[in-house]
């Protein structure tokens, strides 16, 4: 099966990990993108960047935001479609609107509808000077009109979670299948072998205000429980000021340190409402229970009372109650690890390949 892959931006995030798996599944596929960072993991890929490559630093990918729509609209004329069986877009914002020629189906693996134009538009605009916001509001409104105009370009939407499938239904009035993104479970399984749970709670995520790590800090301050926090971000200094004697902010940690911290924790705690959330699944692979918000991706990945504990409000009191409940439970490490299998790399590849082949077979 000859495949063309379209991916918004090649950077170093979760979506780019998915792209690596798509390339492994279809290694001969050309990969079309708007901007690409030059990173070792992309060596060997046939990457076709837009004319902006070399003119705009890939790390500043938001700068030419108003130009991307026109680039995507013109891109079909630049692609050699001869013999192509399937277009796969890996997208949040732009490439999902790429138009394939008649007779070539388009599978869109969607991470969420673009937050800057839909549910988090206000948050996006608040990150800029008030002087710029009216102009940016025009940009986001223009994008939304374009996005709606092209919502039928994908023949099949595949969402990363049921939570995101609900967003796709709301934004585009489109049903979607769900294939969870691939998580590398093996390093966490191996790291936990022979390791007993320690005396600390652990979390790892970017320290943004909306991630609500402050709730964990307050809860563990009050409960006098040990908490270790890995990650950096704009909230680092404020959280360090807030932290009591039992709370440690570790900043950036290496991959090896991360494995050790997850394997040695009493439980992993996760207060954010995420579209999926890979780090809680990694903790499950290590056999550690997860105390998490019962909304978003963790409502699907963590089974309340079996592999972790849910809290249903982002309040200090709710987090404290969930941690106290977790403290009283006996956890079955084997059951917790088994629950992570449905999120494995193999499960992702098998499910996505079946959907891709089925779509091509239907023509």
CATH architecture annotation name of the largest domain? 3-Layer(aba) Sandwich
Secondary-structure element pattern, one letter each:
EHEEHEEHHEHEHEHEHEHEHEHEHHH
CATH topology of the largest domain: Rossmann fold
Taking the sheet with the most strands, its summary is: 7 strands, parallel
Mean pLDDT: 94
Instruction: Categorize the overall geometry.
Output: globular
Tell me the distance between the termini: 13 Å
Domains, number: 2
Bin the strand percentage: 15-25%
CATH superfamily of the largest domain: Glycogen Phosphorylase B
Descriptive account of the structure:
- With 363 residues, the protein is α/β, with parallel strands linked by helices.
- It has two domains: 3-182 and 344-362, Glycogen Phosphorylase B (Rossmann fold); 186-343, Glycogen Phosphorylase B (Rossmann fold, 3-Layer(aba) Sandwich).
- It is 37% helix and 18% strand.
- The protein has helices at 14-25, 68-74, 121-126, 133-149, 162-172, 186-192, 213-223, 236-242, 255-263, 278-285, 298-301, 316-327, 333-339, 345-362, and strands spanning 3-10, 30-36, 46-49, 86-91, 106-110, 156-159, 176-178, 200-204, 226-230, 247-251, 267-270, 290-293, 308-311.
- The protein has a seven-stranded parallel sheet with strand order 3-2-1-4-5-6-7, sandwiched between helices. It has a six-stranded parallel sheet with strand order 10-9-8-11-12-13, with helices on both faces.
- Helix 6 (186-192) packs across helix 9 (255-263) and helix 7 (213-223) packs across helix 12 (316-327).
- The longest helix is centred in the C-terminal third of the chain and has 18 residues, at 345-362.
